[in-house]
Amino acid sequence: MWKSLPLLVLATSALCADSSTPAISLEQKEEFLKTAKVKQVHGAKKGITNTVRATLSDGTLTHDASIQRIDEEKARFETPQGIELGFRDTYRFNIAAYRLGLLLGLGSMIPPSVERSYEGHKGAWTWWIENVAMDEVERLKRKANDPDKDHWGRQFLIMKVFDQLIYNIDRNQQNILYDQDWKLWMIDHTRAFRTKTDLLDPKALERCDRVLFERMKALNESDVKAAIGTWVHESEIKGLMARRDKIVAYFEKKGPSAFYDYLPKASAASSR
User: Fold this and answer.
1) Of 206, 174, 208, 203, whose CA–CA distance to 188 is shortest?
2) What pTM was estimated for this model as a whole?
3) Which residue, 10, 159, 181, 215, is the most exposed by fewest CB within 10 angstroms?
4) CA 57, CA 36: separation in Å to the nearest integer?
């Protein structure tokens, strides 16, 4: 972010308390984040938004979480892009982005995030991503590339569409992570979900994954409200739906050449 560094600390080694974390479902990860005991707290190496890293354990599994408690609203706020009215910078949007991602089949690209209190303040407790190799800043610095450039590109395009949908004003290069298998992870959405009905940058729309497109098209306001209404305002949902309409219309007008396949069709997750 231009106001902070990313939600999750980056390093090329030992990012989680147990690098051999067994494969568990998203529901199990959510439950772990909600109930596991805090064993140790570390100061986040990056970030100035009251974020800490905690090692959690439920007696069987030990894993780290990022705890972010930023929750600010300002009627008027000056940003590098200009004056923003109705400014919000809140941990709530991390949870909303994750749960909206589930509706869109993006559960493998956005880490689980739940609401839980820490030191008397509610915040987003977010699953610490295993085996992170680098962020986008480091990738460009190293001039490193996925051996399968098409694999990388298709993930990147998904992120660009998602950011237009949620009006994410803060997708800087430190909020894009890659694990050792070149899987792209999107983190830190505390400045998304604006009320604006226009797209942030229509030129960012190039191509769209077919599964993502069909799920966006199928979204209805009541389902979105049920999934994320706890963490976003009604006006923010209406802005999201208006942007959805523009994205769908853009790709429908562009035609078959605009679509490609990356997300597995069977990977749908409910909003739970």
Assistant:
1) 174
2) 0.88
3) 181
4) 5
Start-end of H helices in 64-148: 92-103, 136-142
Residue given tokens 């992870």 in the structure block: 185
Tens place of pLDDT for every residue, the chain, 272 residues?
Answer: 333 333 333 332 233 444 455 689 999 999 999 999 999 998 765 544 568 999 999 999 999 999 999 999 888 788 766 787 888 999 999 999 999 999 999 999 999 999 999 999 999 999 999 899 999 999 999 999 999 999 999 999 999 999 999 999 999 999 999 999 999 999 999 999 999 999 999 999 999 999 999 999 999 999 999 999 999 999 999 999 999 999 999 999 999 999 999 999 864 444 45
Strand, helix or coil for residue 249: helix
Radius of gyration of the chain (CA): 18
Rounded Cα gap, residues 158 and 227, in angstroms: 20
Phi, psi of 195 (to 5 degrees): -85, -5
CA distance 104 to 218: 9
Q: What's phi and psi for 50, nearest 5 deg?
A: 60, 45
Cα→Cα distances 146→2, 156, 186, 188, Å: 27, 12, 17, 23
Q: Is the Cβ–Cβ distance between 189 and 176 less than 8 Å?
A: no
